[in-house]
Task: structure prediction
Amino acid sequence: LFQLLSESPATMEFTIRCSYIEIHLEKAVDLLHPPNSSVGITAQGIQCASEACCFDAQDVLTLLSKGNAVQKVAKTQFDSRSHTIFTLKLEQSDIVTGITRKSTWTVVDLVGSEVAPVDKRLAAKPTKTALQRETKMLQKSYSALNAVVKALSDQSNPNQDLEIPYSKSKLTRGLKEILGGNCCTTVLLTASPSTYNVTETISTLRFGETCKRIANTPTQQRELTKMEYRRKLKRAEEKQQELKELLREVASECHNLPSIPSTLKIKKINCVLSIRRIEG
Result:
């Protein structure tokens, strides 16, 4: 990415901002600034997360290392206990034409869906261990993710008209643009060849097969220049003028009719009121 930016024309200016959050026990945590308690995930996406400007690849790697240092991990320090979402926002501006384009690159690392071992003696007690609580929340988020993926894959069937249940968990709300949104999405699956994990491996492969049926329709988004806004406004004014002329012609024909049945008088009055309202 930074190599391509360095080779771009001198008239192009770029701004890169990065954020890094984790979802642990259905709570969003700002990994770049943990004291930030205002970060959240709503229907509009990730809100109020800290962002840092990056000028080269080393800056991005430094932010990742900083976030990984405070992420929730298991005893081995390699097993993650939370989902993480790293977002890189790129803004490109042409100083000659004034055209601005924006794009977002998101990397999501999901926790392994393995089920934590259950101790029968602990399971009989009303209080649950931290590991059991985490497992319950992970199962909830994966259940919501499977529901979203299935609903999106079913949308390819014209006979299906399903509402996508993004609101079921923080994870699915955070993935709203990635799954079925205005983007190109790549899903990487990891599975174990061991027979001990055969159930999880089959479940993972089925999940990937369902993801393949989701059809995203990415489109280029950019901000209009002042000149383009003026042209757009001019076309709208011309269209409005055409409608006014059409209404005048219809109103004139209504007045010139020799006789109007009582059932059509209301329509004539409405027609005259419409032309007056637009002209006013």
Summary: The chain is about 40% helix and 20% strand.
